[in-house]
Amino acid sequence: MKTQTLGMRMMLMAGAVIGCLALSLPAFGQGTRKKNLLGETDEAFFRTEDARRIGEQVLIYQRCTGGWPKNIDMARRMTDAEREQVLKDKERRDDSTIDNHATTMQMDFLARLYQATGDVRYRDAFRAGVDYLLSGQYENGGWPQFWPVMRDYQPHITFNDDAIVNLLELWQKLMAGEAPYGGDLLNKEYQGKLHDSFEKGIGCILDCQIKTDGELTVWCQQHDEHTLEPASARAYELPSYCSQESAAIVRLLMSLPHPDKRVKRAVHHAMKWFDTYKLTGYRVERIREGRRVLDTRLVKDSLAGPIWARFYDLKYCEPYVCDRDGIPRRHLEYLGPERRNGYSWYNSRPAELFELYDKWADRYDKAHKVQVSLKTKGANENGTIDMFRRPEVDRSAFDVIVKPGDSIQLAIEKAPEKPETPFKILVLNGTYNQKVIIDRPNIVLVGENRDSTVLVLAETAKTRKITEYHGKPVGNGVIVLQEGADDCVISGMTVYNNYGTTLEKTTTHQMAIYGRGTRTIVINCNVWADGNDALSLWAPESGGMYYHADLYLRCPGVDFLCPRGWCYATRCRFYGDSRAMIWHDGRGDKSKKLVITNSSFDAKSPTALGRYHHDSQFFLINCTLSKNVLNENIGYAYSDKVLDPCPWGQRTYYSNCTREGGHSGWLDDNLDKAEGAPAFYGITAKWTFGGKWDPEKRIRDLWNVLAY
Q1: What is the pTM of this model?
Q2: In the 3-class helix/strand/coil scheme, how is 383-421 assigned residue by residue?
Q3: S-S: 220 plus which of 69, 230, 384, 604, CB 3.0-4.6 Å?
Q4: Range of 180's domain?
Q5: Which PROSITE patterns match (predicted)?
Q6: What is the pLDDT of residues 368-408, one digit of tens each?
Q7: Is 171 a domain residue?
Q8: Is residue 476 located within the same domain as residue 331?
C-alpha cells in the first residue's frame, strides 16, 4: 500500500478540535471553556517566561512511560503541594494516554518551546513521547486508549475523540518536517520507524472499517483489539456506526497524496454512507442560563443544514442516544440532564467533507465517484430509516400473559418456587383491582403500558383483607414482595394505593409497593399513593439493594421513597404535598446510601425535600428542585425527641443540583466532604452497591421484555 505523506496535506477540519480543550473543562452544564495555553501556536508566546514556566510543568507531568495523563490543566500555576504530588506520580504506568489529545498536545507544546529556546530538555522529552507512542502500537497497527497498564475497555483500538487520527497526523507532520517539527527535533533513525508505524496505522483503519451485507460503511469509536469488531467503551458508548470519529478518519484518508485502491474504496463507501444517513429538518438547540446549559433539544427546522447522529445502531442503522445505564434511547428527552447536556449526540462534521470529496474524487478516482449532496432529503425524511423507532416487547419471551379479568396472582403461582431463570409475566392494558403478592425470587412483572396498565387498591395496615399468604404474614401494599422474593423486576405499570381519596381522608401508611426482598428493580412505573411510604423496600436488617429508574412518584404523605439499605434512583419525578418526600435508613453499615441522580422534585404546596431519624446517607446528583421544595437541607425528623442518636451524623451530599428561586447554601456542591470524595460521574449504580450488584446489566439482559 502506497501512502507516502510528504507534500500535500489537507487542512484540519474545524471540528477536529472537539475535545482538544478537555484539560480546562468547566463543571457540567457550563457552556464555555477558557483558552487552553497548551494549544498555543503563536511563536512570540514561546519566547516568554510564562511559556517556560508551563514547559517546566509539562516536563514534571510526563510519566516514566514517556506519555502524559489527560484532563489536567498543566498550564495552571502549580502549588508546592501539587508539584510534590505530581513528582510522586511520575512512576505511574496506568494513566498515560492519547485520549482527549493527551500526550500529542504536550508534545506539540514542547516542540514549539524547543524551537524557540533550544533547550534540549524539551527535545529529549519530546523524543520520549515519540518512543511512548511507538511502544503502544499493536501488531495490527492500532493503538489502545491507555498503556502500558490497561483496564476495562482501554485495550480496545481507540478512534474515540480522534485519538488515533491525532497520532497519525502527528506522524505526518514529523515525516514532512512541518513546523514546529523540523530541525534536529528528531534524528534520522526515527524516520523509518515513523513511516512503518504510519503504514500500519492506515492499514488498521482500513481493516476496521465496518462491512455490512458485503458493503463497507464507516467506523465505530473503538474496535476490539483482537477481532477488530465494533466494541463498547463507557456505558453510553455502545458498538455502533459512529459519524463524528468516522469523519475525521475519512479526512485523514483523503489527505494521503498517493491513495491506493483500498484507500479509494474506503473513502467512496464512507461518503456514500454519510450521504445516505444524513438527517435533515432538525437542528440541535441548547437552552442556556448564562454559562449553564439547562437543556438540549432536537428541534424541527426545515431550513437547517444536515446533521448526523453521533451513534447509529448496528441493527437498523438508526440514530440513538444513551444514558449511563447503557440502554439505547431514540429521544434526547429520555436521557437524564447530565448525559443529555454533557455529550455531543449530534454533529455536522461529515458535512465539511462533501466539497473536499468532490475535488478529491475528481483528482484521484473519478470513475468510481459517488454522487453525494447536502441538499437532498436525509434518511429520516426519505423513508430510509425510522428515526424514532419505538422499542418493541417480544411477547413470545413471556412465560404468562395476563389479560383484564385474569388474576395476576395465579400467574405468579405458575412460576417455580425458586425459578433458576427469570419468570416473565406480561400484564396487558386494563385496570386490575387486585393485591399482588410475590413470594418467590426471579419474578419479572411487566405491564403493557405504564399509563394504561393500572393496578389499584385501597388499603392500609389496619384494613388489609389478606394478612397471610402461604402461612406467612403479608404487609400493606398493592404489590407486596415477601421476604425471599429477591431479584424481582417491576416495570411498565401504574401502581396506586388510593385509600386516602376513596375510603377515608387520611395519609396513614398506604404503600403502593412494599418489599422485603433484595436486589429489587422498579422501573418505568407510576408509583402513587394517597398516604405515607408509597415505595417502601425494607429488606430485613436494612440490608437490601434496590434500583429505580424512570419513575413518577406521587404522594401527599411523608417519606414516599423510603429505602432501608442501598438504593439508586435515576430519571425520577417526585411530586409531594407538604411533607418530606425522601427518607433513608442506613443503620448497621456506613456504606449504605440513597443515591438520586438526574431527577426532579416538585410539590403542590411548600414541602421538605427529605428527613431521617436513623443513620442515613443521601447523595443527590444533577437534580432540580422547584420553588415549592423548601429552602432547607435534609435533616433530622424530630425536634422534640430522638429515636436514634445517628452516630455518623448528618450525611447529605449534592452535586450540580439547583432550586428554583435559589437556596441558602445548603445545596452547594460538597462531594469532597463525602467519604472518598467521589467525582459526580463516578456516582453510578455499581458504585452505590459497592460492585456487589449490577442492576443495569440485568435490565439490559431483559430488554427484550422490558423495552420502553
Answers
A1: 0.90
A2: CCCCCCCCCCCCHHHCCEEECCCCCHHHHHHCCCCCCCC
A3: 230
A4: 39-202
A5: PROKAR_LIPOPROTEIN
A6: 999 999 999 999 999 999 999 999 999 999 999 999 999 99
A7: yes
A8: no
